[in-house]
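Here's what a typical entry looks like (Thiol:disulfide interchange protein):
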Amino acid sequence: MKTLLSAAVLALLLPLAACAEAKFEQGKHYEIIAETTSAKPEVKEYFSFYCGGCNAFEPIAQSVAKKLPDDVEFKKVHVDFIRAAAPEIQNALARAYLVAKNLGKGDQVASAIFNQIHRARAPFSNENDIRNLVLIHDIDGETYDKAMKSFSVRGAASQMKKEQDELSERRVLTGVPMLIVNGKYRIINEALDRRNMETELQQLISYLLEKDA
C-alpha cells in the first residue's frame, strides 16, 4: 500500500518538476556562478539601503523570506559601493541591521532605514542618527551599544564587505538587488515577469533550491 501511495505522489510531482524545468532556463532566468552549493540551503540578497530599486524590492524580499522552507535561511548582505554616504555610515547601517536581526527585529528596522532615506529624505549624518532610529523599535540602548561594538557583529559586517569585494572582482555582483540561491545560482531579475514578480520569484527560488537537493 505504501509503495502504491509513494508511486502516486511521485506521479503527481513529476509533471510539476517538468513544468518548472521548462519554465526556467539557465542563462535566461538564472546563471551558475559556482561549482558547489553552500553547506546549508540559503537565499542571499545583496542590497544597499541607498538603492532605490532595493527599497522597492524590500516588501517582496520580506514576503519571500517568510515563505521559504524552515530549513532555508534568508540572508541580507549590505553592500557599500553606492556612493550616497560615507563608508563609515554604510558600515554602521550594516551593523545596525545585524544587531536588529539578532534581536528578532531585522525586517522592522530594515524597513525603517529604507523609509528614512527614500521617503523622509532624511540622510544619516552620523552613527547617533542611526541609533536613534533603531531604538524606536523597542531595542534597549545599552544592548544596542554593546552589540554594535561586539566582535560577532563587526565580524559579520566585515564578512559582508569581503563577499561584496569577491563577487565584484568576479563580475558576479554588478548591481543590486541581487539574489543568490545556495551560493551557486544567481537569479537574473530582468527575466522575471514584473506583473507577477513575487510569485514567479518564489517559484524560481523553489526550483533552484531543489536542483541539488
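Residues 2-23 form the longest helix (22 residues).

More examples are in the samples folder.
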